[in-house]
Amino acid sequence: MNFKTAMDGYLGPALFGLVAFLLRVSLFARLPIDGVTPDLLLVVVVMTALRQGAYRGMIVGLVGGLVEDVATGRLIGMHALGLMLAGLAAGFLRRRLYPDPWFIPLLAVLLGILLQELVVVTTFFVVHLSVQQLPLLVGIEYIYTAPFAYIIRPVFHRPEAPA
């Protein structure tokens, strides 16, 4: 199996997702900015959806989110649903917009963060937990997470002819 075949299937994104999760809970857990760490798993989900489409992005987001929920001991399904929606949204961006412009990963990561935080806020509201300073935290998370989309973009990027 070569690299291109691995990145077009589930193996490549799964390995990148595992590395992203391990980096988030180990290295970046020690480097928070106002309590926020970069969501590297979200970046892997978004880049997978931009490369392979909405369905694969949703599957990678669902599995990665379940692993994150189970490993961190949070409400099961909260991050799984958020990452699944982020993969779906990035896949739709891929279908609607030509994925080569420089701003597409930034837009997809922003949309993914907004969808994931919407799921978190809704879940917290349903279980009667408070969410304070959400716009500030979303802004910090975006600024902290977006550069990683460009760090791993060369690995996931596949030039395509415009439809």
Q: Which features does this protein show?
A:
single chain; mainly alpha; 163 residues; Arp2/3 complex 21 kDa subunit ARPC3
Question: Would you list the SSEs in sequence order as H and E?
Answer: HHHHHHH
Portion in strands: under 5%
Secondary-structure-derived class:
mainly alpha
Query: How does CATH name the architecture?
Result: Orthogonal Bundle
Unreliable sequence segments: none
CATH topology: Arp2/3 complex 21 kDa subunit ARPC3
- CA(first)-CA(last) distance: 29 Å
Number of distinct beta strands:
0
The CATH class designation is Mainly Alpha
Mean pLDDT: 84
Helix content: over 70%
The number of distinct structural domains comes to 1
Largest sheet: none
Radius of gyration over C-alpha positions, nearest whole angstrom: 15 Å
Tell me the number of helical segments per DSSP (H or I, 4 or more residues long).
7
Overall shape = globular
